Amino acid sequence: xxxxxxxxxxxxxxxxxxxxxxxxxxxxxxxxxxxxxxxxxxxxxxxxxxxxxxxxxxxxxxxxxxxxxxxxxxxxxxxxxxxxxxxxxxxxxxxxxxxxxxxxxxxxxxxxxxxxxxxxxxxxxxxxxxxxxxxxxxxxxxxxxxxxxxxxxxxxxxxxxxxxxxxxxxxxxxxxxxxxxxxxxxxxxxxxxxxxxxxxxxxxxxxxxxxxxxxxxxxxxxxxxxxxxxxxxxxxxxxxxxxxxxxxxxxxxxxxxxxxxxxxxxxxxxxxxxxxxxxxxxxxxxxxxxxxxxxxxxxxxxxxxxxxxxxxxxxxxxxxxxxxxxxxxxxxxxxxxxxxxxxxxxxxxxxxxxxxxxxxxxxxxxxxxxxxxxxxxxxxxxxxxxxxxxxxxxxxxxxxxxxxxxxxxxxxxxxxxxxxxxxxxxxxxxxxxxxxxxxxxxxxxxxxxxxxxxxxxxxxxxxxxxxxxxxxxxxxxxxxxxxxxxxxxxxxxxxxxxxxxxxxxxxxxxxxxxxxxxxxxxxxxxxxxxxxxxxxxxxxxxxxxxxxxxxxxxxxxxxxxxxxxxxxxxxxxxxxxxxxxxxxxxxxxxxxxxxxxxxxxxxxxxxxxxxxxxxxxxxxxxxxxxxxxxxxxxxxxxxxxxxxxxxxxxxxxxxxxxxxxxx
Length: 663
Prior knowledge:
Layout: E1 16-21, H1 31-41, E2 45-48, H2 53-56, H3 66-77, E3 81-85, H4 93-98, H5 125-142, E4 148-152, H6 167-181, H7 184-191, H8 218-246, E5 252-253, E6 255-256, H9 267-270, E7 278-280, H10 291-305, E8 311-315, H11 334-344, E9 347-352, H12 378-392, E10 406-410, H13 412-418, H14 430-444, E11 448-452, E12 462-465, H15 473-484, E13 488-492, H16 514-517, E14 519-526, E15 533-534, E16 540-541, E17 544-550, E18 555-560, E19 566-573, E20 576-581, H17 586-601, E21 615-620, E22 623-628, E23 634-635, E24 642-645, E25 650-651, E26 656-660
Parallel strand pairs: 1-2, 1-9, 2-3, 3-4, 4-5, 6-7, 7-8, 8-9, 10-11, 10-12, 12-13, 13-20
Antiparallel strand pairs: 14-17, 15-16, 18-19, 19-20, 21-22, 22-26, 23-25, 24-26
Helix pairs in contact: 5-8, 6-8, 10-11, 14-17
């Protein structure tokens, strides 16, 4: 990251606590009550003015800051810091009416009209001009306000407008491609335009991958994904650079969305552009019992995108959301458990959407810290208890995550590319496979870090690289050096298949990993929805199989398909090894496979045997977080340390215990 700065403040370090605050939705008479209820709940920080552009500039060039001045003053008087948004997330009606050319265009050529939010093109020079003018005015007005602790750029960049196919986007895409390739010969080679008569002789001929008669060029699609992430990053940097010019002492962030299938933004690439990483996360209830594993996975990945530094949980929910097909409230204990799981993985701030539950608008059924029922409610009482818990856990603030001995590599480019069209199967889900492995680690009670593929993984004993589809030559060399240096690599089906241009490595799969793994595959054999591949160890695979030929020495077949073909292999190389799993086994099926591979690598759980699988362990320095993965009480035995949170000797259902362990 560009700076190690955290929030601008003085005093003893603490875990921040709060929410998005939208006072403009409410009459002035509620504001004093809000401050009083915030203080009673332990709130220390709010994000302010996120969707306020139309209120701040109701008519072009005419500004109304009086209400925001008053709210800033009230919050400061109440001892509550402000993460002030630049208010540029949604343009006001006057701007889109005067300049409809800022509106995004979808893949079919249809305009995305106002009425929701984020109805702007990331590459629109007109939008940028108006947005940066507002940013400048806000920075000049509030730079010396004592409540201002950080700048919050826009909001959830790319949530609804990541892929724009407009003429502005086309022009910017060509500029981006010129910078990437230099000349058309290099672009034609990278895109493989000899196929289907797609050779380009002029830059003006190149378009975004708009709706076509059949599958658009795969590398064009991949580069458009790269460009779209970069275009939003460029916009982020435009606001950031202006704020740094005007308020160099105020740290800057924006809220990422590391969760679920939010794959278009390459956050590992964005992290260096902010002073501290922030994230929004919402539990994916459709995942059933795996939802808590996904929350932990996302928090873990966010912490490692942040480089191990403190990060800010900008949004999550106190209870039900409003945007899933069925929105159910959280069960007792889940509000605190979800929040503390993020803290366990490095968050030094816990915030919700939002403070006061809206009475009108599209999110009026989304839960909040202060629900429709008011302070005399179970949700608010739970919120206040969590505020007290975070106050007691203040000694944790600023402590670094303690690295695990195992890691799961996460690669946005493989995510994008492995799920494109015209592939062996359209059922493959990259993040799901990565989560399966993470759940298997949790089931064994073994900590595993989730790290971006570009990070240094050389210090881990075991590295799992699921569906590492895109393997440039340099990455192949890093993986080989890792293994020959004594590391234990595990990879899976559809890995090592293409290079950075989405061109297949020739000579058989898995391309540049063939020699390292000691195997060769001539043809993929994906499975139908109702098909299962039986293994001789009693497991069964779904989704995919490979026809593996063992080609190297020192390769052991750990499991075979019924019929004799290898299914899971492991090649030793000096003190290291490289293993390959050729089918999807799911977390339950992966557990015995992973246990065997970890045993061979000499890696075991730090937890007592009776806690493994039932309890997740996360470690920050001397602090151990023990998170109950079940709805039943768990007796804590064999663990010494001062109890900072939780019931001594007992982990409540869906509960969290925090111990300060002896050094």
